[in-house]
Amino acid sequence: MFNKKIQDAINDQIRRELESAQIYLSMAAYFDSVNLPGFAQWMKMQFQEEQAHAFKFYDYVFDRGGQVILQALGLPPTEFQSPLDAFEQTLAHEQKVTGHINDLYALAAEEREYSSQIFLQWFIEEQVEEEKSAGDIMALLERVGDNEQALMMLDRELAQRQAPAEAGAATE
Ligand code: MG
Fold first, then answer.
1. Each residue's pLDDT tens digit, 94-139
2. pTM of the entire structure?
3. 3-class DSSP state of 16
4. Domains and CATH numbers, the chain
5. What is the distance in angstroms between the CA of the first residue and the CA of the last residue of the chain?
6. Which residues surround ligand 1, an ion (CB under 5 A)?
7. Ligand 1 centroid distance, CA of 125 (Å)
């Protein structure tokens, strides 16, 4: 029988990953609305990545003989002042997610749930990446400032982002 506390906490985390997906899709819609298709593409890939995170937790619950119980999702933000504002919100959001992953790990340690600790290590590493990529783009946007030409160059660069490698994680 899968540890009930861990199961409940993972179900909460599935909700958070799906909420993250919604937030990034909302940001994609903002970027499409201001004709920045490269930024929108980056956010659409981020949307997919968050769905892959939710599925990783989903599969784990079933692997452990537990039960997935979906929850209502909070509404995503829909107002963004600027590309920089969207990426400041992205970084702040990912920092919050890191805190939740850390709490989950602490709970797994407290419950002596060793396999859950091992499972969560992937997410601990992933959050380092998430914070870094959001922070890097945020820093670039700070340098771009009001330079429209530099913004277009960054947009073309972000358009290169392809489907997340984690999409193949289901085979793990
Ligand atoms: Mg995530």
1. 999 999 999 999 999 999 999 999 999 999 999 999 999 999 999 9
2. 0.92
3. helix
4. 4-71+81-163 (1.20.1260.10)
5. 23
6. 17, 50, 53
7. 11
